[in-house]
User: Which sequence fits this backbone?
């Protein structure tokens, strides 16, 4: 994670954002979905360069996505800031979830 | 050619003891490449193992006696502590087989019991070696955990906790316990939690910190969090983490100054 950000040439703040978001989203997978995968990609588009993180799990899924994206809502013991917080750290953020099938979160940070 | 048919294996080994031990010692010296291992120690282990093996053969036992197991454990512990590899340890024991094989090449059938015993010795030494290694590792990780939770009294009534590295749940628990213990022991009213050595602060880290601060408050001590780096401050705000009811300062020195002012202490140059 550290190396990926450095290879792209992220500044300290973006580097910290990337690390923090990865930590939040990875923890969600471990806590709620009993594990999953994270894919890290070097994204290029329209002369820009960035890092894309994709978190996929085969967990129980999120029943109410809208509420899960609200500050302070958590089905566990957390602060309920992980998902909405990670979204605020991202330039692009997507989440798709099917109850009983799993969840897929895409986190994208472009180099400024 | 040695005449091995006429005498039993144990009796033969007893007769050839000194010669076999000399060959074994030379073999180990040549093959083991452990220059920092005292020759006397090697000889002592060789003698002990050889005699133990002969005694086991004589008694017709197929399992290792307690004393032989003890000796093997001692050898493995010695090797593990000196930083030798598992294969060096196994070589030490199993090489007796090579040495005896070379000497009694044509008497192989009568050696079956012997081989089984030496194999058992090798296995036991491996178990003991790994056991000791695991013990060392456990000990070191405990030491590391203790080291990673230093609570330093800065001043009468002021404690400081320089937190370095990732603040996961286990460490947060250790830190809280240690801090509360020290607050009670020293009667401190203030504690400075310096997080300049924490790489990232995410929602869980913040939650851990808030809980530590709340627990200290219940014991009558106020916590000041210092060392929040600019990048981390920005990320914490973006995440929506609110630590506004906790006193924070940029540096440890500023945190100390805050505690001094609360204790009505002033620092001024000597006139």
Assistant:
């Amino acid at each position: 994670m550290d190396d990926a950000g450095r290879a792209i040439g992220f500044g300290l703040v973006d580097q910290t954002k990337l690390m923090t978001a990865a930590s939040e989203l990875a923890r969600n997978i471990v806590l709620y979905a009993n594990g999953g995968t994270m894919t890290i990609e070097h994204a290029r588009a329209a002369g820009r360069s960035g890092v894309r993180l994709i978190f996929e799990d085969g967990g129980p899924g999120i029943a109410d996505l809208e509420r899960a994206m609200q500050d302070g809502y958590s089905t566990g013991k957390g602060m309920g800031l992980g998902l909405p917080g990670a979204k605020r750290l991202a330039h692009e953020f997507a989440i798709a979830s099917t109850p009983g099938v799993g969840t897929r979160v895409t986190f994208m940070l472009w180099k400024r | 050619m040695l005449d091995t048919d006429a005498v039993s294996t144990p009796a033969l080994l007893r007769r050839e003891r000194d010669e076999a031990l000399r060959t074994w010692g030379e073999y180990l010296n040549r093959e083991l490449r452990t220059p920092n291992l005292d020759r006397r120690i090697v000889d002592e282990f060789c003698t002990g193992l050889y005699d133990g093996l002969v005694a086991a053969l004589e008694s017709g036992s197929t399992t290792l006696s307690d004393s032989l197991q003890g000796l093997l454990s001692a050898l493995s512990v010695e090797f593990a502590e000196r930083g030798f590899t598992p294969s060096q340890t196994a070589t030490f024991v199993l090489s007796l087989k090579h040495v005896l094989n070379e000497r009694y090449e044509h008497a192989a059938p009568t050696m079956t019991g012997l081989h089984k015993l030496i194999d058992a010795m090798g296995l036991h030494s491996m178990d003991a070696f790994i056991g000791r290694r695991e013990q060392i590792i456990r000990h070191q990780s405990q030491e590391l955990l203790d080291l990673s939770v230093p609570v330093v009294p800065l001043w009468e009534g002021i404690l400081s906790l320089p937190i370095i590295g990732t603040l996961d749940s286990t460490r947060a628990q250790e830190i809280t316990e240690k801090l509360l213990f020290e607050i009670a022991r020293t009667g401190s009213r203030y504690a400075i939690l310096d997080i300049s050595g924490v790489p990232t602060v995410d929602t869980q880290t913040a939650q851990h910190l808030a809980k530590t601060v709340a627990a200290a408050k219940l014991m009558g001590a106020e916590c000041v969090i210092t060392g929040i780096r600019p990048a981390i401050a920005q990320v914490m705000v973006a995440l929506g983490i609110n630590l506004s009811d906790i006193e924070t300062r940029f540096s440890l020195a500023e945190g100390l100054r805050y505690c001094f002012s609360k204790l009505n202490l002033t620092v001024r140059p000597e006139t």
